[in-house]
Amino acid sequence: MHTTAQKLNGSEIFFECLRREKVDTIFGYPGGALLKVYETLYDVTDIKHILVRHEQGATHMAEGYARATGKPGVVLVTSGPGATNTVTGITNAYMDSSPMVVFTGQVPSSLIGNDAFQEADIVGITRPITKHNFLVKDVRDLATTIRKAFFLATNGRPGPVLVDMPKDILNAECDFIWPDSVDIRGFKPTITCHANQIEKAAKKIAAAKRPLLYIGGGVISSNASKELTLLAKALNIPVTMTLQGLGAFPASEPLNMGMLGMHGTYWANQAVNKCDLLIAVGARFDDRVTGKVETFAPQAYKIHNDIDPTNVDKNIKVDLPVVGDSKDFLAQLIKALPEKSENHDSWLAEIDSWRKQCPLTFTVEDDSLKTEFVISRVSEETEGNAVVVTDVGQHQMWTSQYYHFNNPRSIITSGGLGTMGYGLPAAIGAAFGVQDRPVVLFCGDGGFMMNIQEIVTAVHYKVPIKIFLLNNSFLGMVRQWQELFHQEKYSFTDLDESNPDFLKVVEAFGCKGMRAENPAQAEAAIKEALAYNEGPVFVEFRVIKKDMVFPMVPAGGSISDMLLERLNPKTMV
Amino acid sequence: MKHLISVLVENKFGTLNRVASMFSARGFNLQSISIGETEDPEISRMTIVTRGDDQIVSQVLKQLNRLIDTIKVTDLTHQPHVERELLLMTLKLSKATQHEIFELINVFKGKVVDIKQKSITIEVIGSPDKINTTIDIFRPYGIRELARSGAVAIHRGE
Ligand SMILES: Cc1ncc(C[n+]2csc(CCOP(=O)(O)OP(=O)(O)O)c2C)c(N)n1
Ligand SMILES: [Mg+2]
């Protein structure tokens, strides 16, 4: 124990702990239970507090920050409604394994359980959506609890941790003692992969004729892109990635197969279908990836590396589980590989023929605009090097198809939960963490309305994000399913009549805005927006209404059921 | 099949809730759960009875391990162990039945813990199967109330 015999109150201890954890930015919103904390914050100069406009915004910002930087995102909100407003953001971080620490104010200890003003049992509410959570009952436990919270959020499989701090504890004084180390006896994640398993995996890889690397977000969070690239190139193994894995392997490499799964590329899905060895790294065989599990990679011997043992054999039975950190897995594999392995030229040629058979394409017309075109152009203009944030819907899937990610930590998107309203705040958070690359947001007209208030935050702090609104006047992704599977009954998805004038809205918030209705205007607007760095800039792209994302594996279907085009061509615009 | 799982957990508020809500959130079967302090006041032992095929039970064990407040998870099913449950049961008592009831209490090695004019409360300790049988046998005599502790279990010593 390291003692600095210094008497501090709970609020001062709180900030002292953040300093020790090297926190430079927190996203927060004040309230009654946090008055003491904000009193202390008044004189804090070394930690930047970002005032959001809704607590949900704070959580998504913290997650955007975390995913762009790899550091935990920190949220500070008051009790009751402040705390309950964080629930969606916490769940989102939980599903996508993002490190985050959420601090909530709580009513004074003596009132807990009395239905006090602005009391909510946030520890009870968030138990199933946090990696762990704490209620601090004694100011002397505060520092240790905060230390544990950061430790848990960032070690093993990352995730959100919540610390509930009653008002009396934030006022009470005690000696500040920062524990030098943390020991949580119930938390001992396996980091190093078992050597025997690695050896078995290496043998299988060396012997495989049609191997495929299936890469998930675990490779991003363990910072293992370098190892992945080395391994894939050394053995000539094609790489397909999940939505969260995109960028782990550079899109510019010929071995890149793009995304697999529901809206994955035809050739990546065919490769899954035909491979004889599937090496899943930091991925969890999500249902949006596998479709019908019985027909997923039917010919393949399956190796599965994940840091979370519960992911192994959860959705799909694998042949060789390797529990441990993905970086360690890949690094050990590289060392263990035999000198000689199979040559995969004919396998790669086969994949290439699928690519030629069904490439990702779209048509361009002079007088109308498509989301695919906008995303492709932004990808080219930024050379695949931007930090790209999306909301949820069709534009999100087109981003995965048409933005060519060349770097890790470059796609920030709500994958597991599919939270509309995630994009704008996540982009703002990402921009607080990353200054050397442009931060681009692709957002739909539906989701944009869900956290639109955060434009004010971006304007106030002059956050130089590029807000690209793909306005198709529809809840496009739902419309797509209605067209394909619900007899074209477009029930409550047409927003044409009710959408506001987005340009006027953002301008009223003080944001620079533009509008583009055809490819020529879009070209110009993209260039202008990318060059503008004084603060946020907004472009509304008025895209066609009835565009569809293909290919598509219908939910629960096999990859062989993949739809490549509209079922009913007359529904085209 | 039925599995008997012993879990050492941190003796903190909310731990039981974390475990129970994990079972319901993931749709696992939870037949019984019991908890009590161990020789170390900071640690409690939970005994859980669940049902499922191998794949499900393996998930149950891993999900239990994943909780931060669990210290050690052991599936006792295929290991030498002792499993006991306590039954407290109040039965109707009458002149006509009392003789048979007392005989049955002896057969089940039960104990009388309370006796009134028209009722008798007994305790029986045994495996959950024995408790099930006990209840079935006594049912015809008229059960007023019963309470079961759920199974508790422990490794057999070496
Ligand atoms: C909070 C929330 N509510 C509802 C949904 C269901 N949903 C998924 S995509 C979608 C449509 C999104 O429309 P828009 O934001 O315009 O994007 P587009 O699909 O048109 O690109 C909806 C309603 C969701 N994912 N999240
Ligand atoms: Mg839309």
From TrEMBL, chain B:
Keywords: Amino-acid biosynthesis, Branched-chain amino acid biosynthesis, Transferase. It is an enzyme of class 2 (transferase). InterPro entries: Acetalactate_synth_ssu (IPR004789), Acetolactate_synth/TF_NikR_C (IPR027271), Acetolactate_synth_ssu_C (IPR019455), ACT-like_dom_sf (IPR045865), ACT_dom (IPR002912), AHAS_ACT (IPR039557), AHAS_small-like_ACT (IPR054480). Its EC number is 2.2.1.6. Transmembrane segments: none annotated. GO terms for biological process: isoleucine biosynthetic process; L-valine biosynthetic process. Pfam families: ACT_AHAS_ss, ALS_ss_C. Pathway: Amino-acid biosynthesis; L-isoleucine biosynthesis; L-isoleucine from 2-oxobutanoate: step 1/4; Amino-acid biosynthesis; L-valine biosynthesis; L-valine from pyruvate: step 1/4. Belongs to the acetolactate synthase small subunit family. Catalyzes the conversion of 2 pyruvate molecules into acetolactate in the first common step of the biosynthetic pathway of the branched-amino acids such as leucine, isoleucine, and valine. This is Acetolactate synthase small subunit. The gene is ilvN.
